[in-house]
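Schema walkthrough. Field components (list of strings):
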Amino acid sequence: MRNKVSGLSRRHFLKMMGLGVGIAAAPILTKATQSRPHIIVVGGGFGGATAAKYLRHWSKDVDVTLIEANASYQSPILSNLILNGQRSLEQLNFSYDKLAKNYGVKIIQAKVKSIHSGKKQVELEEGKKLSYDRLILSPGIQFMDIKGLDQKKNLHAWMPNSEILQLKQQIASIKKEGVFLISIPKKPYRCPPGPYERACVVADYFKRKKVGGKVIVLDANAKVTVNADNFMRAFYETYKDIVEYVPQSLVEEVDSDKGVVITEVENYHADVLNIIPPHQASALIHDNGLANDKTERWAAVDPLSYESTQTPYIHIIGDSQGTGQPKAGHIANAEAKICADAVLRLLSGYSPYDFPRTNSACYTPITKNTATWITSTYAYDVSSKKMKLIKGSNGTSKAPTEENYHRMYDWANSLFGDTFS
Amino acid sequence: MQDKRQRSIFTIKKLLLVTLVLFFSACNVEEKKSVNNAAIEKIVAEAMVQTEAISPLSAPRLIQANMAFSLSGLRSVAAQCFQCHGTDGNSKTGIPSLNGLSDDTLIQLITARKTNNNANDLMHKQAGAYTNAEIAVIASYISTLPKEMGE
Ligand SMILES: Cc1cc2nc3c(=O)[nH]c(=O)nc-3n(C[C@H](O)[C@H](O)[C@H](O)COP(=O)(O)OP(=O)(O)OC[C@H]3O[C@@H](n4cnc5c(N)ncnc54)[C@H](O)[C@@H]3O)c2cc1C
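Field assembly_structure (string):
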């Protein structure tokens, strides 16, 4: 069936591409193909905003509605720099106005309560129902429980919201010789370098403020999961008197009132506990039976289109999906483009492109004026039907440099622009 | 009119043929990649036929070229550059724009980064992940995009 295109759907496709003028004599389209296809995107983060934008950028013959719970988006990317005052939340705040104005995306601020896949409808919390031809979900993650953890007291600040400002205050209130503890869940988690980056930023802040404070990094993984050379050098050289890195330390329990973290081997006391619990796909995915990968935490999808292997006409991109690609904003944007292209093709009777590529790149601050980078590229592997890391495409900068630090802002601003404007 | 049409068909042919030629020149030296060059070639060739089939329309060259890439699906590969280089290659930051450069220049620039052997260059890692054929297609696509489209 693949690549076999009927004359009817081909004409429809050409029409979608803005070239329908010459085919007025085309046979009368069926009712279904005559109406303008409606695509609903849920979640206006790096995945969802990009998908909504590119659908309309590439075709003016589809209607796109973006449903997002919040009025604007606070980017987690660069948000660690709020902790040391190098960025403000305003600088990382993005409205959806440009998607509406420049691309004609219809924006609805609402929370999606449930999906009625049989009727191809989503139901909003207030009860309103909207119909879709294709549904794209990019709702991000939710956290799993840790015994005794009160997430209001021990913040994760790992979501696109303003919690990072509270964490900043907590850190600023740490007295001399105080302790900041950050815990890292087992892979896979959102933004592999993110927790190590945060440890560096806080250590740098302590160093410059001469707080004499300590940063304890409890890593549930056997070793630094990414960019290990640069992070290990930062922990054992640059911040050797500040950072204590403890691999293989799974947080088993937390006493939020006393500020104690319990691992298998030891108890840790700290003034500020920044506990990042293990993640799974967002509630929207779990509540609608879409978390069907082997681990039952993430949504299994076909990487050619990001269509759910569970429920047809529903596509899942970004951190919620379970293709094994990193959970990061840059690559969520990449997946969104593959998905948008595939959706437009599918709506026109074509099959998705056979050899999609995605890439990930990330600049990470190490000190107040140096940064490193990591990058990787993924390709569809025909035999396993999976996205696979292209050999040799992954790498890191040799060392943190000032040039990388400046490039970091260019990279992030480009990504913000390609996603939100 | 006839002349214009001929020229536009010619341009598309050139864009896509550049790709095919590069496939053959690249095939020997390319290390085994998970992307099957012959299959991409087939996809591009099919898109070319389809584009030509509707070329009697007096569609502007850019739309036609864009359509060929849409038909081939390779648009989604080219768009992987835009995370850093801006939508349609129109950069708004210190990272260089790709938009406005010719396909030849783009191929040259990307290939130079692919072959510079500098492990400390992020773009070297990125460029190395694409076959020469893909680079040619990406370059062809971006060279047809109008400036500031979508702004
Ligand atoms: C500190 C930190 C640093 C990071 N740095 C980087 C980096 O340098 N590079 C990088 O690539 N990535 C980075 N990331 C990771 C990146 O932020 C995430 O991977 C990315 O945000 C995932 O995008 P998403 O679209 O899947 O989800 P999200 O960005 O979480 O967006 C999901 C959206 O869906 C909405 N939503 C959820 N459920 C519903 C519902 N039922 N109805 C309506 N709306 C809903 C939410 O409100 C939210 O806006 C970092 C993350 C953190 C925490």
